[in-house]
Design brief:
The protein is of the alpha/beta class. It has 6 helices and 7 strands, in the order E-H-E-H-E-H-E-H-E-H-E-H-E. The chain is globular.
């Protein structure tokens, strides 16, 4: 019960899965949240089973699911030290592209879902003077033509800074992770350049959480070397 506990949303693939593997290697117990039960359970088994990790089915846009996920962490492991609000997805660029239902789901997941993760987890994280991380994007630093996804990540950028200011003097640290192109299932088509691997982003996450308690790494922006924008 003394091992630190790391909760990850969007944990079933890509950046979330890679971060779970890295966090487990660093000695954390894991709470893995996503909508894909089968993939989550396979990851739990890979990380050593229920003594080391648990899977919780969670739709981040549903408040009850978020509360239940945090409660599952406390019931299983007794504490919560690191929370990574990582769930999210994109949409084709162009305000005449995609469809409005996809847009709505994306905004709810990327923005509202991240806010719900913070709201559900913050009391427990305050208890441990822990760490909250959010997956932003290069697209949250510069607008992309016709990209509503970019607008959602600008919102996440603002959310991270707003949370940092709220948590000032509480001992809670806040980090915004802002990757460029990553070779994950996020993309319908693979990037044409040598993209980041999910493990590259996981390394950035673990760097931030591994700093001494008096060091708060607020933002990590990482691009593939070949990415120009």
């Amino acid at each position: 019960m003394d091992d630190k506990v790391f909760l990850i949303t969007g944990a079933s693939s890509g950046i979330g899965e890679a971060t779970a593997v890295a966090a487990a290697a660093a000695g954390y117990r894991l709470v893995l949240a996503a909508r894909s039960d089968d993939r989550l359970q396979a990851l739990v088994d890979k990380l050593g089973g229920g003594d080391h990790a648990i899977a919780v089915r969670c739709d981040v846009t549903e408040w009850e699911d978020q509360v239940a996920t945090v409660q599952a962490a406390l019931d299983a492991f007794g504490r919560l030290d690191v929370v990574f609000a990582n769930a999210g997805f994109g949409a084709p660029r162009g305000f005449l592209e995609s469809d409005v239902d996809h847009w709505k789901a994306m905004v709810l997941t990327n923005v509202y879902g991240a806010a719900l993760t913070i709201r559900a987890a913050l009391p427990a994280v305050r208890e441990t003077q822990g760490h909250v991380l959010l997956t932003g994007s290069v697209a949250g630093r510069r607008a992309l033509p016709g990209s509503l996804y970019s607008a959602t990540k600008w919102a996440v950028t603002a959310m991270g800074e707003a949370l940092r200011l709220e948590c000032n003097d509480s001992g809670v640290r806040v980090t915004l992770i802002e990757p460029g192109a990553v070779d994950t299932p996020f993309f319908d088509n693979k990037p044409t350049i040598r993209a980041l691997d999910p493990e590259d982003v996981a390394d950035a996450v673990m760097f931030a959480v591994g700093r001494p308690p008096h060091v708060d790494v607020n933002e990590i922006l990482l691009r593939p070397t070949e990415q120009s924008s």
